[in-house]
Amino acid sequence: MSAPFLQKPASSRVVLKFGGTSVADLDRIANAAEFIKLEADAGHGVIVVVSAMAGETNRLVDLVQRVDSTGNSAEFDRREYDAVVSSGEQVTSGLLALTLQRHGYKARSWQGWQIPLKTNDAHGRARIMDIPEAAIGPAVDAGEVAIIAGFQGITEAQRISTLGRGGSDTTAVALAAALGAERCDIYTDIDGVYTTDPRITSEARRLDRISYEEMLEMASLGAKVLQTRSVELAMAYNVQLRVLSSFANPEEARSGKLQPCTVICNEDEIVEKHIVSGITHSHAEAKISLMTVPDEPGRAARIFEELAAADINVDMIVQSPAKTGKAANISFSLDEGDVARAQELLATLKDTIGYTDVVADRSVSKVSVIGVGMKSHAGVAATMFKTLADRSINILNISTSEIKISVLIHSEYTELAVRALHQAYGLHTIAEAS
Ligand code: ASP
Ligand code: MG
After folding, report:
1. CA–CA–CA angle 164, 160, 187 (5° rounding)
2. What is the dihedral of CA 310, 337, 228, 218, to 10 degrees?
């Protein structure tokens, strides 16, 4: 018999994720353990997600590539690629569990297959299909810290899968959603999300809050803090994310000092809204132009259908009249890594499409201005174009959405453009709290 007041309320659960630099060696792992202990001591059920030690996944990917004599990643058995590259996280999960045990805490490691974190069979970039809470939930509620190897899962066919580079972020957010965690803290080597890359300008400012929508654009347009998929999931399941530094002093945190961080949340939870919240850049862009394509219905459709069928993502598209005859030049931007495949494909279509030449340019970058304020403020694009024009930076392509404007420019001007735009939108005047 149990009266309601005798029932112990389920303790609140929190998910903490530690990226590669936060578990880079045993000292860093010991430091991460201090942040975990804080949460456990506060009475939370603690679920921890770890990345591989810094540099480890790159090392493993490189080993796989060296076995493959063609050096062409499309050639090898992606299931074995996953078996190899998922191993870095296994090591850190065990080391962190051991460290916590040393300090007298109950802790155990969980590999993806033990949960089981089920994914589809798109090896190397798998999607999470299901995370049953039955295995981890009760263990955590009973006071055991669950240390989960990020980035990995298991397919229906019982093969190990990985979630794509940076996938531990997605593991963390998915677990927070599946286990009903009250928050998901992403510990990294920087204390939040910045208005732009602080390595480009010392005027970059940490944002106290940013909306899911903006973070999604930032992540997919070059900011490297979070895997894009993790932000999509956080938005879909309303998981509140905090980005904070594991290089902070855990003693200060224990004494109650507020940690600087960025909260990623719904737009309506943000009081101080900025018209523009960030400037991102990406060098991993390229531009392909098809010259003198006959100007008649169906040609563009054919080009982009074929590229889509080959799983080549195209971003900015520009069509302009060619100098001669009734023809157009069509150019588009794409991931630098897809250029060779796109060129091969287009070569096979030369006669059907009817272009005269194809030109690829890898020395281009994409610079983007992001902000939810654009929805309600005019002139954001004009400011961008004017700022670039004043620096004589030529715009090659443009693309926009409701909350972002991206331009393609020559790579050599990337940093100049980022600094100038950061100034032009007054981002250096944003005040950082705490
Ligand atoms: N270790 C994996 C990577 O480097 C996953 C992660 O750290 O998020 O991509
Ligand atoms: Mg990462």
Report:
1. 45
2. -120
User: 260 and 124: one domain?
Assistant: yes
Report residues whose beta carbon is within 6 angstroms of any ligand 1 atom. Answer: 19-20, 51-52, 57, 88, 150-151, 165-169
Q: What is the mean pLDDT of residues 46-57?
A: 98
Could you tell which of 89, 96, 117, 151 is best to mutate to test the pocket of ligand 1, judged by most ligand atoms within 8 Å of the CB? 151
283 plus 171 within the same structural domain: no
Q: What is the mean pLDDT of the chain?
A: 93
pTM over 0.70: yes
Give the rounded percent of residues in the chain with a pLDDT score beyond 90.
Answer: 88
181 and 15 in contact (C-beta within 8 Å)? yes
Give the CATH number of the domain where residue 330 resides: 3.30.2130.10
Indicate if the pLDDT at residue 260 is higher than 50.
yes
Interval between CA 169 and ligand 2 midpoint (Å): 7
Q: Which domain holds residue 34?
A: 13-269
Local confidence band at 263 (pLDDT 50, 70, 90 cut-offs): very high
**SS3 call for 195:** coil
Q: Is residue 434 assigned to a domain? A: no
Nearest residue (by CA) to ligand 1, atom 9, is 165
